[in-house]
Design a protein that fits this description.
Elements lengths: L1 E4 L19 E4 L5 E2 L4 E8 L2 E7 L6 E5 L7 E5 L9 E7 L2 E8 L3 E7 L6 E3 L11 E8 L2 E8 L3 E7 L6 E6 L9 E7 L2 E7 L6 E6 L7 E6 L3 E3 L11 E5 L7 E5 L7 E4 L10 E8 L2 E9 L6 E8 L7 E6 L19 E3 L2 E8 L3 E7 L6 E5 L11 E6 L2 E7 L4 E6 L6 E6 L2 E8 L2 E7 L5 E6 L6 E5 L4 E2 L5 E6 L2 E8 L3 E7 L6 E3 L12 E6 L2 E6 L2 E5 L6 E5 L8 E3 L2 E8 L2 E7 L7 E4 L5 E4 L2 E7 L5 E6 L2 E7 L5 E6 L7 E2 L15 E5 L2 E6 L2 E5 L7 E4 L5 E8 L2 E9 L5 E8 L6 E6 L5 E2 L4 E3 L2 E8 L3 E7 L7 E4 L11 E6 L2 E8 L3 E7 L7 E2 L13 E6 L2 E8 L3 E8 H5 L9 E2 ...
């Protein structure tokens, strides 16, 4: 391809710049009002005068927050995409005054991050597994000023890693020579100045014990086990620098073990024959002086019944024995007192406290001093069989803290370890989390109104204050599916008064109105809104509707449709519809007489799978794809060739099967992607790239699927852009862009990306440039461009420097410039525009103030505006607009010219040498 500049007289002086008034504005708030917040608050960790917590699900700004304990000072640190909120931030630790945590993002996978409590200071530590993959497969814990974790990178596989909270201090320690998929490390415990950990083995059930001091030389294999060993959760100082572990059946090594980190010092304390007839499952160890108290589950007669035994160990076989059998299936009266063992026992004042249940008292607080006589009920807080259900036991500030019900409310109790010294405190409706911080407890609780709040308390009523209360959530109409139809836009939205319905707008607030297909608050749930020619088509249940973008011009075309595409041709709309012949290709003009079957592609009947004596009509399940010339191209299954490409001119005789792209496939798949370029339809089917003009002779295969993996298609100047991946000379995957004019000889590679580049699939053409997001090790996921003329590729702008990534989404070309959403640490996701130059790439303004995101999308030009959906805390997700004249700059493209970033006009000429076959 050759770019030929016109004469200087045709050039425009000056650069292309957007106007200063291009800030987004709210076009119309369709749903007014507020509802109580339903966000979930999850406390993480506190450090000094600040506390980190998560706000998830239903809040105005989901993500990582920080507070000083007062509602006025709570602020968002890092927002999270709604799709990954629940699995986003995990494994929090504090190192060197920073929060270390693992975070999973759609474009980065799961990696370790750090935060100093500011948006700008919240960043990835390292991208261990480049691009989207899980560099952190399991976080173990903190020991000796480091966090140990299992990391994966493609070159070395899974290894033990450690970090001191800095990028330079995040290093691999040791390869794990285990041939297995998924996380390899099973459990860990602090041991000396490092950790002990157990891993899976190379066989299905086997495992191994390892130790590490954080160095490669100090990380070594201790011994193998026939069954996978699990370290019990107890402090290392419990047994003079030794830790307990269990080995479950069926191996002969099953039982309770202890290790000091050496092979000789790893020995079994309890074998199965120590408790004849019983299979013990040792679960939890608790510090008690110089010995450990261990709870062991005893399986009962069925899978949901089990008793529990309390054991103690001083680290020797002789000093390891059962103290008492707690009431269970083998109790005095044969009744079941408790299912399993206590989940979270706590040591305090030389004794162990835990919640336990009996039929007489229900679940109450129990205590043990390590003897049979000293093990039993502490006291009843709620007399009778219902119990007080003590939870969240914490030992700090020389007191035992826990929640229990006293019959009237659920309260926070404090105790000095005696019944007389146990005092009730403030009541909370439904507390679900408590974490010590700054000599107090930070508590998350659900109020009577269903709102979750954070509280700070010293255990007294007067010392309990509100730390954070979410603001009421603005009601949202959830504007979605924006589509331009002539000089109007149709979209879907939901309000209390109208339900979920289609709406239309002329770009003004008064001209934005609902098309109430189901009157009142009930919903029609419009879906698959699609434009074809000058109309929009959408489905409401099994009904196909048509709209010209006005209320009056929206009408139902037919019933019994199958929610596929609807394509107009010659006064009719073609669709997949259920009739007596099964699901076949029909056409309709909106009248009963004009709704007819085009052709029964798969005739006849088959046995009804739900009624062996009955029959059902065969179905070809056609899927209309696009209008190509004077034909509709679609896929269908005629019962002989599988799902293949067809075309119709609207007559039975003119409905014919085209070539099968997926040659040799017994069940060829539906097309994964299509693109209409001029009078040719390109499609990926079965990882094959084919093209058709709607005739059998004009349908052909273009790319051999054996050598590549096709990822995305985009029409470009009457031709096709195809993104594909293949194996490069080094053996690693390489991606490239291809161009095709629809002929095999006109299909060629235009650009190969460097091996460590990972391009996204959002290919977008704006002006004379091709834009797409690309991940690189240096910049993360940012916006790049190419003119495809010389194979050049360049970064448009590093919007969010480093590995944080701006993750451009929703790319849309408008008047030769690009509109998209991008993220920065201080502003979250907002509206950006780009002409391909760094100075011409900038944010159009903040819709959602602060680090929260407005997450704009569905950019749709109409008249002098671009409409889109966006979120702001005080209005929810509603309809917004930005001035189209301001964003396009000083030079707009015309029918016979292109406008480039430097203000020059250029003509694009495609050429091909008939003699040599060369092209450009």
């Amino acid at each position: 391809m050759r770019m030929l500049p016109l004469l200087a007289a045709a050039a425009v002086a000056g650069s292309v710049t957007a106007g200063a008034g291009a800030e987004p504005r709210l076009l119309k708030d369709l749903e007014l009002g507020q509802t109580p917040s339903r966000e979930i608050l999850l406390p993480l960790l506190g450090d000094g005068d600040r506390f980190f917590y998560l706000s998830l699900g239903g809040g105005p700004a989901p993500g990582l927050w920080i507070t000083d304990g007062t509602p006025q000072q709570a602020r968002l640190v890092r927002d999270l995409p709604p799709s990954i909120e629940g699995s986003g931030v995990t494994d929090p630790f504090l190192l060197g005054g920073r929060l270390i945590f693992s975070l999973q993002l759609p474009w980065l996978g799961r990696e370790l991050w750090r935060s100093d409590g500011t948006p700008e200071g919240t960043e990835p530590l390292m991208d261990i597994c480049p691009g989207y993959c899980w560099g952190v497969t399991a976080v173990l814990g903190a020991a000796s000023g480091r966090v140990f974790f299992e990391g994966y990178d493609p070159d070395f596989g899974q290894r033990l890693w450690a970090t001191d909270g800095t990028p330079q201090g995040t290093l691999p320690i040791k390869d794990l020579p285990i041939e297995a998929s998924g996380p390899l490390i099973l459990s860990w415990a602090s041991l000396g100045d490092g950790i002990a950990f157990t891993t899976r083995g190379n066989s299905a059930q086997s495992g191994a014990l390892w130790i590490s001091d954080g160095s490669s030389a100090g990380t070594r294999h201790v011994r193998d086990f026939e069954s996978q060993p699990i370290l019990l959760d107890q402090p290392a100082e419990t047994l003079d620098g030794q830790v307990l572990l269990k080995v479950d059946p069926p191996a002969a090594q099953q039982g309770l073990w202890i290790t000091d980190g050496t092979t000789d010092g790893t020995r079994r304390l309890v074998a199965p024959d120590s408790a004849p007839g019983a299979r013990l499952d040792f679960e939890t160890g608790v510090t008690l002086g110089q010995k450990a108290l261990i709870f062991a589950r005893v399986p009962g007669g069925s899978s949901d019944e089990s008793g529990c035994e309390l054991w103690q160990s001083d680290g020797s076989p002789a000093g390891t024995f059962r103290i008492v059998s707690l009431r269970g299936p083998d109790g005095p009266d044969g009744t079941l007192g408790f299912i399993g063992c206590p989940a979270a026992p706590v040591a305090f004042g030389g004794r162990v406290f835990f919640g336990y249940s009996t039929p007489e008292t229900g679940e109450e607080l129990w205590v043990s001093d390590g003897t049979a006589r000293g093990t039993g009920l502490f006291t009843e807080f709620h007399s009778g069989p219902q119990g007080s259900a003590p939870t969240m036991l914490r030992a700090f500030q020389s007191q035992l803290w826990f929640f229990a019900s006293d019959g009237s409310a659920r309260r926070l109790f404090r105790s000095d370890g005696t019944v007389a010294g146990t005092r009730p405190g403030p009541a909370f409706e439904r507390p679900y989390s408590s974490i010590p911080w700054a000599n107090r407890l930070l508590i998350a609780a659900v109020g009577g109104d269903g709102v979750k709040r954070l509280w700070l308390t010293d255990g007294s009523d007067e010392g309990t204050t509100l730390a954070f209360e979410p603001l009421p959530a603005a009601d949202s109409s959830g504007v979605d599916q924006l589509l331009r139809v002539e000089d109007r836009v149709i979209f879907s939205a939901a309000t209390r008064a109208t339900g979920n319905e289609p709406w239309v707008t002329d770009g003004t607030a008064p001209g934005t109105e609902v098309v109430d297909l189901v009157p009142g608050p009930s919903s029609s749930h419009p879906m698959r809104i699609r434009r074809s020619a000058r109309r929009a088509y959408f489905y409401s249940g099994p009904d196909l509707w048509q709209s010209d973008g006005t209320v009056r011009g929206t009408r139902r075309l037919t019933r019994s449709a199958s929610n596929g595409n609807a394509i107009p041709l010659g006064g009719f709309v073609y669709l997949d519809r259920l009739g007596e012949e099964g699901y076949e290709l029909w056409r309709t003009n909106g009248t009963e007489a004009g709704t007819t079957l085009v052709k029964d592609i798969f005739p006849g009947f088959s046995t009804d799978p739900e009624d062996p004596e009955g029959v059902v009509a065969n179905s070809s399940f056609p899927l209309p794809l696009e209008r190509v010339g004077d034909r509709i191209v679609f896929t269908a299954d005629d019962g002989i060739h599988g799902m293949t490409f067809w075309a119709t001119d609207g007559t039975p005789a003119g409905t014919r099967r085209l070539a099968d792209f997926a040659v040799g496939s017994e069940y060829p798949p539906l097309p994964e992607a299509i693109a209409l370029a001029g009078q040719r339809l390109f499609a990926i089917a079965g990882n094959q790239l084919g093209v058709t003009d709607g005739t059998p002779e004009g349908t052909r295969l273009l790319l051999d699927p054996a050598s590549c993996n096709l990822l995305a298609l985009k029409a470009f100047r009457g031709r096709l852009l195809a993104l594909e991946a293949h194996t490069g000379q080094s053996g690693s995957e390489v991606q490239s862009l291809w161009i095709s004019d629809g002929t095999p000889e006109g299909t060629f590679e235009a650009l190969e990306f460097p091996p460590d580049f990972e391009p996204g699939t959002q290919l977008t053409v704006a002006g004379s440039l091709v834009f797409l997001p690309i991940w690189t090790p240096e910049t993360g996921l940012e916006l790049w461009k190419s003119d495809l003329t010389t194979g050049s590729l360049s970064l448009v702008k590093d919007i969010s420097p480093g590995l944080r990534s701006s993750n451009p989404i929703g790319l849309r070309a408008v008047d030769g410039v690009l509109l998209f959403a991008a993220r920065t640490p201080s502003e979250g996701y907002e509206v950006w525009r780009s002409d391909g130059s760094p100075e011409g790439t900038f944010s159009l303004g903040e819709i959602e103030p602060g680090a929260g995101s407005s997450t704009p999308g569905d950019f749709t030009p109409i008249a002098d505006q671009v409409l889109f959906s966006a979120f702001r805390s005080d209005v929810g997700q509603e309809l917004w607009a930005v001035d189209r004249r301001e964003i396009r700059g000083t030079c707009a493209p015309g029918p016979q010219r292109l406008c480039l970033a430097d203000g020059r006009y250029e003509v694009v000429v495609d050429w091909r040498n008939q003699r040599t076959g060369a092209r450009g």
